[in-house]
Structure formats: structure tokens, C-alpha cells
Amino acid sequence: MDKKTAIDIHLKQNYLKADDGLIHFSTLCGAIKDSRKMTGRNIDTGAKDGSNTCGHLGSWLGTMGYITILDQIGKCYRPKNKVPLEKNKVPLEKNKSAIIKALNYFTDFNDSEINALYALRNAFFHDFSLFNKDNSKYLHQFIVDNDATNPVIVLPKNDWDGKLDNINNDNATYVNLQALGDLVENIYKKLLEMSNLGDLEIELEGKENELASRYSVVTGQKII
Fold this sequence. Notes:
Elements: H1 3-12, E1 16-17, E2 23-26, H2 27-38, H3 60-76, E3 77-79, H4 97-106, H5 111-127, E4 131-132, E5 140-145, E6 153-154, E7 172-176, H6 177-197, E8 200-202, H7 207-214, E9 216-219
Parallel strand pairs: 5-7
Antiparallel strand pairs: 1-2, 2-9, 3-8, 4-5, 6-7
Helix pairs in contact: 1-6, 1-7, 2-3, 3-4, 3-6, 4-5
């Protein structure tokens, strides 16, 4: 399989019914649909949709879906015009690199903001909480909401020391879950545009063969 075909399948294969009756889809497209459903969006476009009563824009589970999408994007892609992150950021912990890569490659966030969003990922996924105490680099206590206009992230005025008795508004890291979902939707649109221009590089060690085989799924029924 050539590179362009593999990327097209990964970015665009959205529950395609084959002649044998089986449904083919990429896990990226599946994750996008599920995240949209859980965050009250149109499952086909990502637009906010008041008729979708399955989820809401501040859903933690929906946000976890979007964060997982960032993880997958960071494993799979980088812009052609950017040096691989591990070559210019030392050290970059291997098990933490995927979401950090995605945010470095496809957003304008600084390192502190990227580390804070990674810390939120850990708090949600490992503990379903608003506290991350992994180490000093990722030490955060969070306030989250789904405001319509606030930015994705606002770093605290003062660093939190990790002590629960010392929690206050000045050492809280703010994250707007609606804006975080919008961010991932915009990154996905950017990937589609970059793919059309031939500006995407596959990061996976196995390149197009790994992209096609690792993230393609066949099922006997349509899952929506």
C-alpha cells in the first residue's frame, strides 16, 4: 500500500460497508464519532448540536476521547517541515511522547501549557480526578468547565506544591473542555488539509504498512 492511500484510509475511512457486508473503518474516525457523540456535537461534522442529547460539551468521558485522539495523532504523524521532536527536545520520555508530540507539531502551545494538558490527561485517565501528582514537572490541580469563549488553558499564577491543604484559585490550572474539543477538531481538519497537500509525514516505525494495519478495523455491524 502506498503512503497516500494509507493516510487516506486512516483519516477518512468512516464505516464503509464492503460488498461482503462487513463494515470497515479506521479507529481514528471511530474515536472522532464517539467523542462527538459524548460531547453533544454533530457526529458527522463536529459542530455543536443541541439536538444531540447523548452527551454535553463538558463531558469528561468525551474529553478523554479527544485526548486519546491526540495520543494517536502524535504516534502517527508530524508535518513534513518539522524535525522529529525527539531530535530537538531532550529528554523526551518515550511513554509520554505521543500527546506531547501532537501538541508540539500541530498547536502553538508552549512547553508549560503542553505539560499541563498532559497532566490533565493523566488525572482523567489514571484517576478520573482533577489532580495529577506524578512528579514536579506534571504537578497540577485543575478547574475545568465548558465555557463558550474562554481559552483552552490558563496556567496558574503560582505553582501548586502538591499539598491538598494549600489548594486555592491562584494555584489552579484552568482547562476549558469545550475549547479542548474544538482544538482537536481543528487539528483533525488541519490533518486533512495537510494530507491533500502532501505535507504529512508518517511517524510510525512501520510507516504506511503499520498505519494501515494497526488502525483499521473490520466489524460485522455498524457501530454508531
